[in-house]
Amino acid sequence: PTVVDEAMKRPRYKDSSAPVVIGIDPARGGADSTVILVRQGRDIVSIKRYSGEDTMTIVGRVIDAIEEFKPVLTVIDEGGLGYGILDRLNEQRYKVRGVNFGWKAKNSVMWGNKRAEMWGTMKDWLRSASIPEDRQLKADLVGPTKKPNSSGTIFLEGKKEMRSRGLASPDAADALAVTFAFPVAHREYVDKTPRRT
Fold this sequence. Notes:
34% of the residues lie in helices and 18% in strands. It has helices at 2-9, 55-69, 82-91, 114-126, 135-142, 159-164, 171-177, and strands spanning 20-25, 34-40, 43-50, 73-77, 96-99, 146-148, 154-156.
């Protein structure tokens, strides 16, 4: 939790040259919320949660966010509901990419699947990031446990397992994690933080 607490204490970077990426974790009804999260470089610019909305309403919400924040990349968890939302957005000529948590990780020796790998990248990002003081986001970020298998490959606890422990689905953290699904190239963005070796 300390990584999360420190990120909450850090002032915002407000680097307007950093690329904007939108991450969407669509809810599958019930207690879960659809989360649309906007990340710019090392800042979270916006977190919006919506409950009980149908697919087309969510499509409209995503379009509003794209129009407002002009991201270089918009990524949605395409599992479950996500497929329909993704198809509709692409049909409307919005450039949105889907990611499936079950995909093979780029580094499949270290990570059991794409979700575990994105969470790993997100954790590294948190070490120098600034995030809002959002109790729900904090709960989401510290909720899932890591489970290495016998060969040391890391998997993340799934939503079903979390529910059985009485924890909510980490919607906001998953929405943040998908912003790390694909590399974002940016010409002007230069990381000015000295690297700690």
